[in-house]
Design goal:
heterodimer, A: alpha+beta, Arc Repressor Mutant, subunit A, Glutaredoxin, 7 helices, B: alpha/beta, Rossmann fold, Ubiquitin-like (UB roll), 5 domains, 5-stranded mixed sheet, 24 helices, 39% helix, globular
């Protein structure tokens, strides 16, 4: 997966961000947000780098990463598919959309396809309940979708 | 430059997802193409609330309200309405029962019963322009507070208004502020809880996106009242648009001296910082939220000490929800007497509800406390989708319960909802119809709380997991009557012994459905049937011989080849092989397959 290579530029950018923070010990969450924005995910080496620069134990960083669902330790696909699993979407059939996507992409929710193209995740309420059920692909929202339309939507990302 | 006309285009999440941004661009192009750029301004506003029919465009000052507007309609709006002054009938809202077109939003039943205080500016001002907020009494309340009132006056005013926290528990806001004044410290903090985690509630997001300054103003007022000079807004990272709008608003407030040092020449200083959450429902609990602000795992701690004594960095802190804060400037401006006249005896003012699920008008509604569910669901919400039968309404999200039709005429406020086994919560209101299985709904919420439980205390970590397992057993058709008793016993033990609000309320969806929809549980357990036809393992599919024409469609889609029959002959499902996937049911064009 060539997209997930961590480069020296990434570490340099992260280091510059950390150096600018006055109160380092309490900045773990803010730093992790930045790191995930730069690197796309938070593998062990990035967590250890952060622990080192913030001068906190690595287990503390790991503890925070694993506590919050927004942080991921595995790389997401080039196209990150998020199915809203909020209540409004659930009662309007979001589970059927998940089943269909799992079948079509041959993976389970939370996983990424072996070629790194698609990842599938569930999220809680994007606040577009009028469009339920809702699927988001890299930030683009598809509303009121039916299981039958899943193929057509995936075909848009056929590159 | 003063414009003669404005086109207000909704930029809320729902409309944005339906291409309202492209619509806005196209409108601007058309305005320019017609040489109207000096007379008409098209601008983006916050959420109008009527998400069901988005994208929404409002023409001001004509007050014409267009619904479901697509980018390709832009040309006609400009050419017909703006140039020729003719309304476009086909884009107006049609009242479904009377079948008349309504031009102004005030005439629409969706808005008629609403009273917008917290949402007063949403949809009417440009949230990225502080001047529009100024033009609508913006920052007047802050000016009044710091120049004409003492901190004690402010607290008394909030106390007398009767305002209670809109985030869930309903604790009196003025009392919370008062507690924080009782502790001396070199620094105190005002925290805005914008970690809206209830799946199906989006009012806080809409306020932050549509009217960010009202929250900033209220935080500064709170800071003045308790003696704090620093505020934090703890907001979900999943709300990028709200974060962006808040950043713009904070910068503009600083530029104009509404935040910063010596506000209104009063010597009062106040600054606001954004802190991003990272996806943890439990962080809506105030002690967990405070730990998350400090960069730690968001685990709750026991109270006391309450945040008012020891909060962020161990200093006195008040934590208020977004909607609560949005009420504050109005209370200061119009007086606590005015506010206290609205609502019921113990619940004053209004509440914003996010109306969703099986209802015709999905959207955000703000109504006076004491309104009935019937008014919200049938008058404002336009009734149940597709003419189905109402079954229940779920309020309070994962901490709340399901309310059955016997309470449709109960006036709702904090206390009446608790009495009937639910709670106000943050204001999520999900309408369920006859096709929803209540056991399955309870299971959905339990899955949520089990996933979001932080794991610190045993009752919540282990107990809720066991509750979920029992529910899974029941939906799979393996439940016994003893399981129902166990659900009740375990549920009330978890409520009594959990550490924080998450665990103390997690069993509510199970307990309330058990109370009001026990017959559905019993059907699952005793008859091994799911009355709503949802729980897959309890379903059976049968071909009705009289209706089957032998088209073979069902046999062709069956993944396990368990449907026998020659073309043009009646088909039969082999029940011993059937995996109950429902593919045949979907494929049959002659309604010849019975689901039961």
């Amino acid at each position: 997966m060539e997209n997930n290579q961590l480069t020296k530029e990434m570490y340099d950018e992260l280091e510059r961000f950390i150096e600018a923070i006055p109160d380092k010990e309490n900045a773990i969450i803010a730093v992790l947000h930045k790191a995930q924005e730069i690197c796309g995910y938070l593998p062990r080496e990035v967590q250890e780098f952060i622990a080192d620069k913030l001068n906190v134990p690595a287990n503390k960083v790991y503890g925070v990463v694993t506590f919050y669902s927004y942080f991921t330790t595995v790389p997401k696909g080039k196209y990150a598919i998020n199915v809203c699993l909020g209540t409004a979407c659930f009662v309007r059939g979001a589970d059927k959309i998940v089943n269909e996507l799992e079948k079509k992409l041959d993976l389970k929710i939370g996983e990424t396809t072996p070629d790194g193209k698609f990842s599938l995740d569930g999220l809680r309420c994007v606040g577009a309940c009028g469009l339920a059920p809702v699927v988001m692909i890299n930030g683009k929202v598809y509303g009121k979708i039916k299981p039958k339309e899943v193929n057509k939507i995936l075909a848009e990302y056929n590159d | 430059m003063s414009y003669k006309m404005h086109l207000l285009v909704c930029g809320g999440t729902g409309c944005h997802a339906s291409d309202s941004d492209i619509l806005l661009e196209t409108l601007r192009e058309e305005i320019k193409a017609n040489g109207l750029e000096n007379d008409v301004q098209a601008l983006v506003t916050g959420c109008f609330g009527f998400c069901e029919k988005g994208p929404i465009v409002k023409v001001y000052p004509d007050n014409v309200f267009y619904i479901e507007v697509k980018p390709e309609d832009a040309k006609e709006i400009v050419a017909e309405h703006l140039v020729k002054g003719r309304r476009i009938e086909r884009l107006l809202y049609e009242e479904p029962t009377l079948e008349v077109k309504l031009a102004e939003h005030k005439e629409m039943p969706f808005y008629k019963k609403q009273l917008r205080i917290a949402l007063r500016n949403c949809g009417f001002i440009d949230p990225e322009n502080i001047n529009e907020y100024f033009a609508n009494d913006g920052y007047q309340a802050l000016g009044k507070a710091v120049t004409q009132m003492t901190p004690r006056d402010v607290i008394d005013s909030v106390k007398e208004s009767g305002l209670r926290g809109r985030g869930g528990g309903g604790f009196p806001t003025g009392m919370k502020w008062d507690f924080a004044t009782k502790y001396d410290a070199d620094q105190k903090y005002v925290v805005c809880n914008a970690d809206e985690g209830d799946p199906g509630a989006f009012m806080d997001r809409s306020i932050l996106e549509g009217d960010p300054h009202s929250v900033l103003e209220a935080m500064a007022i709170a800071g003045y009242a308790i003696g704090a000079s620093h505020g934090y807004i703890y907001i979900r990272a999943e709300y990028p648009l709200a974060i962006e709008r808040l950043k713009i608003a904070i910068a503009q407030a600083k530029e104009t001296g509404m935040l910063g040092e010596d506000i209104f020449g009063s010597g009062f200083n106040f600054d606001i910082e954004l802190k991003l959450g990272a996806g943890a429902f439990v962080c809506g609990e105030e002690t967990a939220l405070i730990h998350s602000i400090e960069g730690k795992r968001g685990e709750p701690t026991t109270k006391p000490p309450f945040p008012a004594e020891s909060g962020v960095w161990g200093k006195p802190t008040i934590v208020n929800n977004v909607e609560t804060l949005a009420n504050i400037p109005v209370i200061i401006n119009r007086g606590s007497d005015w506010f206290a006249k609205i609502g019921t005896e113990k619940s004053k003012g209004t509440k914003v509800f996010a109306l969703a699920g099986k209802i015709n008008n999905v959207g955000l509604v703000e109504v006076p406390m004491g309104i009935t569910l019937r008014e919200i669901i049938y008058e404002i919400g336009g009734g149940i989708k597709n003419g189905k039968k109402f079954k229940a309404v779920q309020t309070g999200g994962p901490s709340g319960g399901c309310i059955s039709d016997q309470f449709l005429d109960t006036p709702i406020d904090y206390d009446s909802l608790i009495q009937i086994g639910s709670m106000m919560g943050s204001g999520g209101m999900i309408v369920l119809d006859e096709d929803d299985c209540m056991v399955n709904i309870a299971k959905f919420y339990l899955e949520f709380t089990v996933e979001e439980s932080c794991g610190k205390c045993t009752p919540c970590r282990v107990g809720n997991k066991r509750l979920l397992e029992i529910l899974e057993k029941i939906t799979e058709g393996k439940g016994t009557p003893e399981d129902l008793k166990m659900l009740e016993e375990l549920g009330s033990a978890i409520k009594d012994t959990s550490l924080c609000g998450l665990g103390q309320t997690a069993p509510n969806p199970v307990l309330s459905t058990l109370k009001y929809f026990r017959h559905e549980y019993e059907a699952h357990v005793n008859e091994k049937k799911c009355p709503s036809g949802v729980c897959q393992n309890l379903l059976s599919y049968e071909i009705i011989p009289d209706k089957c024409v032998g088209c073979t469609a069902c046999a062709r889609v069956c993944p396990v080849n368990c449907i026998e029959g020659a073309p043009k002959k009646v088909h039969v499902i082999d029940q011993s092989k059937c995996i109950k996937c429902g593919a045949c049911y979907e494929a049959c064009k002659f309604d010849a397959i019975k689901k039961g």
